[in-house]
Amino acid sequence: MAGHFGIQEVYRGENPIVDIVAVHGLNGGPIKTWTTNKTEKFWLADPDMLPKNIGNARILSFGYDAAVTAFFGRTSSDTILQHAHTLVAELVADRQLEGAVNRPIIFLCHSLGGIVVKRALAYSASRTSKLIQHLHSIFVSTYAVLSLGTPHQGSDKADLASTGRKMIDAMVPSKVFDTDGQLLEALKEGSETLQNITDMFAPLMKNFRIYFFWEQEKTDFGTTRKYVVKEYSAAPILDDTERAGLPYDHRNMCKFESRTAPGYRLVVAALMTYTLNAPSTITQRWVHATEMLKAKRAAEAAELMY
Predict the structure, then answer these.
(1) pTM for this one?
(2) Within the chain, what is the greatest distance between any pair of CA atoms?
(3) What is the pLDDT of residues 66-87, one digit of tens each?
(4) Which residues, in sequence order, are bridge partners of residue 220?
């Protein structure tokens, strides 16, 4: 299982101008989340799919232990933070070895993967002191975040907890908690964590292009059919963000059979637009970030003189 953790390059175009980074959610994997069940079509790397539309990108997929307890439970805030730290560290290392520290990044997230990415960007944004300023590069280089079925907000904690319960029922084959009491306690803790991360990310949103996608089909739970993440949570109506529905249930909204599959063109057109626009914006952002860090170092040096 550990072989599926970390950053995997799934496609490399010639002279790539962006890194597209896919991040799976609850009980997912870096390949299986994006692969259709029947035909095993992995659209991120299939030569007839995303690489055909965006030949000048490097496509990466991040894998991590996405067990229920990572998101729901007493240690969920610590665990999400660990995944966020690892995502930033892995990306920094990968891009250093590639000689591409300043290359623009576009994140593509499914479900709770969007929470890990939001926490990672908040962490990277704050890493500006001298010895760790290399970790700031992920925040500076990120141009866009596309989130498919991520619970960005609940009407209250109970509402987020209810979303969490549906996610566990939809994505996790066997029950992890012994009793409903245990599960409810874990969901309560988890919903608080999700809300805190959303609050942390809110002031940073203006730095990125954001595209929210919601599920248009209900998930079959056997005895009933429900939306796992409702539209208002997956795609809050906010200034300067884009939003659209995808005609799938929560599990399948990140899987496409072909380039003519419903929703494929919507997601890929956004990725193409962002790939085209990212380089000029991120080049400018690096100019400002370099000046900011330089001024910070100069101020610190001046302080030491007194």
Answers:
(1) 0.91
(2) 72
(3) 877 767 766 666 788 899 999 9
(4) 225
pLDDT band at 181 (very low <50, low <70, confident <90, very high): low
The closest of 147, 301, 156 to 234, measured between CA atoms, is: 147
| Tens of pLDDT, residues 87-145 | 999 999 999 999 999 999 999 999 999 999 999 999 999 999 999 999 999 999 999 99
- Label each residue of the chain as H, E or C: CHHHCEEEEEEECCCCCEEEEEECCCCCCCCHHHECCCCCCECCCCCCCHHHHCCCEEEEEEECCCCHHHHCCCCHHHHHHHHHHHHHHHHHHHHHHHCCCCCCEEEEEECCHHHHHHHHHHHHHCCCCHHHHHHHHHHHHEEEEEEECCCCCCCCHHHHHHHHHHHHHHHCCCCCCCCHHHHHHHHHHHHHHHHHHHHHHHHHHHHCEEEEEEECCCEECCCCEECCCCHHHHCCCCCCEEEEEECCCCCCCCCCCCCCCCCHHHHHHHHHHHHHHHHHHHHHHHHHHHHHHHHHHHHHHHHHHC
212: which residues sit within 8 A by CB, 6+ positions away?
Answer: 147, 150, 152, 234, 235, 236, 241, 242, 243, 244
pLDDT value of position 76: 65
Residues present in the chain in total: 306
Please give the Cα distance from 27 to 19 (Å, whole number).
24
Does residue 303 have a pLDDT over 60? yes
Question: Any idea what the Cα angle at residue 87 is, between residues 288 and 24, rounded to 5°?
Answer: 120
CB 101 within 8 A of CB 95: yes
